[in-house]
Amino acid sequence: MHEEEKTPIHVMLRCRGVSKQRAAHIGSPATLQEAFGDLGRSGASSDYSVLIQGYNMSVFKCLIFLCILYSFGDCKFLDTLTKCSVKDEDGCLRSVFQNIVTEAAQKGIPELNVPPADPLKIDKFSINLLETLTGTLSDGIVKGIRKCVFNKYQLDFEKLMAIQDITCDLTIQGTVTLSGKSPAIEALLGTNSVDVHGKGKVKIEKLNFYMETPFQLLKNDNGDVYLQLDDKNFKYIYDVQNMKFSAEKIVIGNQDICKPSVALLNDNYRTLLKSFGKMFLDRVVAVYCGLLNEVLRPLPLKFYITEDVSVYIDN
């Protein structure tokens, strides 16, 4: 079982250093009603007393909301995390990691020195195609990470395995080059030397990953245990609902082949995925694991796991 769900008032008070028991008491409806009733009887003007005792308190509720909103401005992210059991029988970790990734992508986590990851900038990303060709994305930008949905997230501490099921709508754009020599390209274009460059964009709808990723439990300098994903020895299956390509200009030699190339890609993206999808997605999963490790490395497990996990460390 995970801890009792935290309401905004509880979190606000906990961020201010109030004990858990005291925060629960102060934030209870009975306590607030009693306090407001006393305020209405303590010599306030008759109009104000009517406002309080009527318990509609629209303006007062707005003030309470603004106070809570202000307090959240300097509330530490670690204080908002729910703790889960290692057994995770109720899917608690799915919500925790959804919160972690969304927060890290959208705003970053300053207290962990984690910058925002959406949009994600990619300086250079290369894969080999048809054995003799190299495709490269430069000055790349990936958008949509903040809206990824965690359908499942489990940590098996006995097997040291993370199981993730994630669905994303992503947009990737940047400068694309394709260079090298290929008999297949020669049959298609009449030349075996390829030097293609241009600016392109692809929208990937409902990209779904089911991943099994080994992890290690390590101790930091303070003796706290943290989790680190293996970004090389993972297994995954994936599916894509749809892909849509667009481009400003794609040049081979002196010829702009943008329109026919985009049409060819949009009509045959399934074939493209079968041929080259795994090579591309291997790199994507490795980048994802690396980004998540940047968050998990400075985030001890004690902030989101109830039990002492040091017993699972392989000595």
Gist?
This protein has helices at 8-15, 20-26, 29-41, 46-54, 58-72, 92-106, 183-189, 258-267, 269-296; strands at 120-129, 133-143, 149-156, 161-181, 193-219, 225-229, 235-252, 255-256.
Describe this structure in words.
The protein has 315 residues and is of the alpha+beta class. The chain has 2 domains: 8-75, no CATH class; 92-312, Bactericidal permeability-increasing protein, domain 1. Helices cover 36% and strands 32% of the residues. The protein has helices at 8-15, 20-26, 29-41, 46-54, 58-72, 92-106, 183-189, 258-267, 269-296; strands spanning 120-129, 133-143, 149-156, 161-181, 193-219, 225-229, 235-252, 255-256. Strands 1, 2, 3, 4, 5, 6, 7 and 8 form an 8-stranded antiparallel β-sheet that branches. A hairpin with a 2-residue loop joins strand 7 and strand 8. Helix 1 (8-15) crosses helix 2 (20-26) and helix 3 (29-41) runs antiparallel to helix 4. The longest helix is centred in the C-terminal third of the chain and has 28 residues, at 269-296. The protein is elongated and about 70 Å long. Mean pLDDT is 79; it is low at 38-46, 48-52 and 69-73.
